[in-house]
């Protein structure tokens, strides 16, 4: 019988509380769903892995996890990322895994959270039911990370899904790349909402959420909105905390594409 495994790949976080509620919750759900497979994990952030290693917590890189599984005799491998977009990070994961496909007799790789319009619509519906406190005179702004390697304006399309569903008080910005934070700040100045809620559009509520979004520095989103005389409230809830989002990742793992000799064949 072939040895089967699932490798869950995340960017990582040095915030233990959000890690438990998000990455570890995703890992647990995926491991339970694919209970016939041995579980392995890998994080892609070198900085975070080094920081945790200094604290005595060792987490494999993708290459280290692949080495470990090869030594353990794994032949049938399913890889699922917890990344949100098929951007640069995901491309690096694909490259690393596909270079080693000859080590496995079966290799399948699941997609990140948002790869088509159906994913965007599903995520919009999940988030629309998650913030009942947002009223007509308030505004909810999500902070995405951003990527320069996308083929479609994902964040703009998500905001369009909100508007289509009648949730025009929901908007999306990014901490890096387009569309950035400027459109949100312009809207605050133009509409003068009585309150702005801020929440991360990221798997974890980590460094970006705690500092770039909710931090005390003058250039944080919270500080800039407060500087306009508008009340702000930060909701530090990562996407990995939503059971419905974790189910989306499970479905992507179930639909994972197969690779043979580093070429897609399914």
| N- and C-termini, Cα separation | 23 Å
Biggest sheet character: 6 strands, mixed
Domain count, please report it. Answer: 2
Task: Outline the low-pLDDT stretches.
Answer: 262-266
Alpha-carbon Rg, integer: 19 Å
Helix content: 25-40%
Judged by helices, strands and strand pairing, the structural class is: alpha/beta
Oligomer: single chain
Elements, N to C (H/E): EHHEHHEHEHEHEHEHHEHEE
Please, what is the average pLDDT?
94
Query: Percent of residues in beta strands?
Result: 15-25%
Determine the number of helices (DSSP H or I, runs of at least 4 residues): 11
CATH architecture field of the largest domain: 3-Layer(aba) Sandwich
Shape: elongated
> How many individual β-strands?
10
- Main sheet: which strands, in order across? 2-1-3-4-9-10
Find the CATH topology of the largest domain. Rossmann fold
Please write the CATH class name of the largest domain: Alpha Beta
């Amino acid at each position: 019988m072939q040895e089967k495994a699932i490798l869950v790949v995340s960017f990582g976080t040095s915030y233990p509380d959000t890690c438990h509620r998000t990455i570890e919750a995703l890992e647990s759900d995926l491991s339970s769903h694919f209970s016939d497979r041995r579980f392995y994990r890998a994080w892609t952030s070198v900085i975070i892995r080094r920081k945790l290693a200094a604290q005595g917590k060792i987490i494999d890189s993708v290459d280290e996890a692949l080495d470990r599984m090869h030594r353990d005799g794994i032949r049938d491998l399913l890889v699922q990322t917890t990344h949100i977009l098929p951007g640069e990070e995901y491309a690096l994961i694909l490259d690393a895994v596909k270079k080693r496909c000859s080590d496995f007799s079966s290799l399948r790789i699941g997609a990140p959270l948002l790869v088509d319009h159906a994913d965007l619509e599903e995520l919009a519906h999940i988030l629309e039911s998650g913030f009942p406190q947002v009223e007509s005179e308030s505004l909810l702004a999500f902070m995405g990370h951003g990527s320069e390697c996308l083929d479609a304006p994902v964040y703009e399309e998500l905001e369009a899904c909100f508007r289509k569903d009648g949730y025009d008080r929901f908007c999306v910005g990014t901490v890096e790349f387009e569309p950035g934070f400027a459109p949100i700040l312009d809207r605050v100045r133009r509409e003068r909402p009585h309150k702005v809620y801020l929440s991360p559009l990221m798997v974890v509520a980590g460094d970006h959420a705690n500092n770039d979004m909710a931090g005390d520095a003058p250039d944080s989103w919270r500080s800039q909105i407060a500087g306009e005389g508008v009340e702000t409230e930060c909701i530090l809830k990562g996407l990995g905390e939503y059971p419905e989002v974790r189910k989306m990742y499970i479905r992507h793992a179930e639909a994972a594409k197969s690779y043979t000799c580093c070429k897609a064949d399914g």
